[in-house]
Amino acid sequence: MVKKVIIILLALILLVAPLVVRWLYYYEGQYTPGEVPRPDLTEIDEPLPET
Fold first, then answer.
1. Domain count, the chain
2. Is residue 21 included in any domain, yes or no?
3. What is the pLDDT of residues 9-35, one digit of tens each?
4. DSSP per residue, the chain
5. Is residue 39 in some structural domain?
6. How far is CA 45 from the centre of its chain?
7. pLDDT tens per residue across span 31-48
8. Nearest CA to 5 among 17, 36, 13?
């Protein structure tokens, strides 16, 4: 009986530990997305396809 409880607790720890570590590592503070760089459309020099 005790062996089953230990195995179940170990399985739960092994399943939950990666989630907790990932949460603590990546989400330390408030998430703020960075600015997305936009291409300068005047520098693009591609010919238009002929129709």
1. 1
2. yes
3. 999 999 999 999 888 887 766 777 889
4. -HHHHHHHHHHHHHHHHHHHHHHHHH-SS---PPPPP---TTT---PPPP-
5. no
6. 36
7. 778 899 998 888 888 888
8. 13
Q: Any idea what the Cα angle at residue 18 is, between residues 16 and 22, rounded to 5°?
A: 120
The C-alpha angle with vertex 49 and arms to 47 and 51, in degrees rounded to 5, equals 145
User: Does residue 8 belong to any structural domain of this protein?
Assistant: yes
What's at 28, amino acid-wise?
A: E
Give the tokens for residue 50. 């002929």
| Separation of alpha carbons 31 and 33, rounded Å | 6
Full residue range of the structural domain in which residue 14 is found: 1-26
7 lies in some domain: yes
Q: What is the pTM of this model?
A: 0.45
